[in-house]
């Protein structure tokens, strides 16, 4: 009776047809502007627009846009390291799990294949005339000494680097540098980890918009003022973005709500299976936290293949902010070659003290380059990644929901207000267009 009365009131309204368009238009517009907001969260990777010096808005370099995540890759990745990755274990532990003895053997084999050409390159660079005039038999003895010393030197060097990795590499800085150099990697990481949540926000927004549209239709029935159309469209735009993001991450901890269950959904027709009514519990928790086990697999794979890799660790060690400490440590091992009787007698006497000192520095530089070649080998990095994948996956699964949410939450939290305000602005514009295109012609 009440519903019939309301329907009759609606039908009798002079703008009935225009009012009926409010729910579907609100649903469509909400779906569209949430899609736009999510795209603007991640794209474009690089700034697109006109650069303006000292531009004061949104931290942008001018009039235009750059995705929030790539624009703030350094800050967001720092938050992820501080709040999540640092709780998974130490760099020393990860490096030990990569089995450094096997790495040393692989590096030794690769360097040993090119050792003689490496020695020739070093000597020709430092003292070409001396090296060309040394008898080949003496060169052969130097080559032999180097071949014999290399396995022990590399083994002790790699183990020493392993034991000192915490002092030689800042994991936070390593990951931040990687993300800032490759901002697309940061975007791809968030999309892989949170694609289901992003799709959920997008699609649920249409349903939320439809519900708000129905509410707005009845508001217009009670308050038949045209200004309410763009005004409430802006309000719904604000609320939709906020509600959709909130639903992904809240509640953080699971809450179990009892309810009477009398059917279940199936994948095949008739799609509904009836049951005897019984008491069940619904797990109410943010969508992202519900997927902790699934996300752990995805995120662990990204970490071991893109972030905490053997190549990245050694690259930071050799060329990063603490490279000077690495060079000092390498000296104590590599200079052992120069202390063998044949090499010491041949080179120190022939070159003189000053040139011999330059030779030592050249050896370090060339050795770093030669060592990094095998460390960039895809096969070696893949095998080391497989060693630590399970370690990362299991520890991500063991994180508390509050810690786990920080794998994705920083991307939204960084400029969440911007996304919400953007929803309000686009809602207002859409509401105004709706008013002009639908309501005003209906009045005429």
TrEMBL record:
It comes from the Bacteria. Keywords: Membrane, Transmembrane, Transmembrane helix. The chain crosses the membrane at residues 16-38, 200-223, 229-249, 417-440. This is Membrane protein. It comes from Psychrobacter aestuarii.
């Amino acid at each position: 009776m009440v519903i019939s009365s309301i329907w009759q009131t609606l039908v009798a309204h002079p703008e009935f047809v225009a009012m009926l368009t409010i729910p579907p238009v609100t649903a469509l517009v909400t779906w569209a502007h949430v899609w736009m907001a999510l795209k603007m969260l991640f794209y474009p990777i690089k700034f697109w627009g006109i650069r303006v010096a000292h531009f004061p808005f949104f931290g942008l370099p001018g009039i235009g846009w750059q995705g929030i995540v790539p624009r703030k890759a350094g800050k967001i990745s720092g938050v992820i390291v501080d709040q999540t990755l640092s709780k998974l274990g130490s760099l020393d532990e990860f490096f030990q799990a990569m089995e450094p003895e096997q790495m040393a053997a692989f590096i030794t084999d690769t360097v040993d294949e090119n050792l003689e050409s490496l020695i020739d390159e070093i000597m020709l660079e430092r003292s070409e005339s001396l090296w060309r005039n040394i008898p080949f038999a003496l060169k052969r003895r130097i080559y032999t000494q180097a071949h014999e010393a290399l396995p022990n030197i590399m083994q002790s060097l790699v183990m020493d680097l392993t034991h000192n990795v915490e002092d030689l590499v800042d994991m936070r800085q390593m990951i931040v540098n990687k993300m800032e150099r490759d901002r697309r990697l940061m975007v791809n990481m968030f999309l892989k980890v949170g694609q289901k949540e992003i799709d959920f926000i997008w699609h649920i927004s249409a349903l939320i918009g439809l519900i708000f549209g129905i509410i707005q239709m009845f508001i217009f029935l009670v308050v038949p003022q045209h200004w309410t159309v763009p005004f409430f469209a802006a309000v719904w735009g604000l609320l939709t973005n906020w509600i959709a993001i909130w639903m992904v991450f809240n509640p953080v901890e699971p809450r179990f709500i009892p309810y009477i269950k009398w059917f279940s959904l199936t994948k095949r027709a008739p799609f509904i299976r009836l049951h005897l009514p019984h008491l069940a519990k619904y797990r109410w928790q943010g969508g992202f936290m519900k997927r902790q086990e699934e996300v752990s697999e995805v995120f662990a794979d990204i970490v071991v293949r893109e972030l905490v890799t053997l190549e990245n660790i050694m690259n930071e060690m050799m060329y990063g902010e603490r490279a000077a400490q690495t060079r000092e440590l390498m000296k104590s091992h590599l200079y052992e070659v120069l202390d063998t009787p044949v090499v010491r007698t041949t080179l120190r006497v022939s070159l003189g003290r000053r040139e011999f000192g330059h030779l030592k520095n050249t050896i370090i530089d060339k050795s770093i380059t030669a060592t990094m070649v095998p460390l960039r080998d895809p096969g070696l990095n893949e095998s080391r990644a497989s060693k630590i994948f399970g370690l990362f996956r299991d520890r991500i699964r063991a994180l508390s929901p509050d810690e786990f949410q920080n794998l994705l939450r920083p991307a939204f939290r960084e400029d969440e207000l911007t996304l919400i305000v953007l929803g309000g602005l686009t809602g207002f514009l859409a509401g105004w267009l709706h008013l002009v295109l639908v309501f005003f012609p209906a009045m005429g």
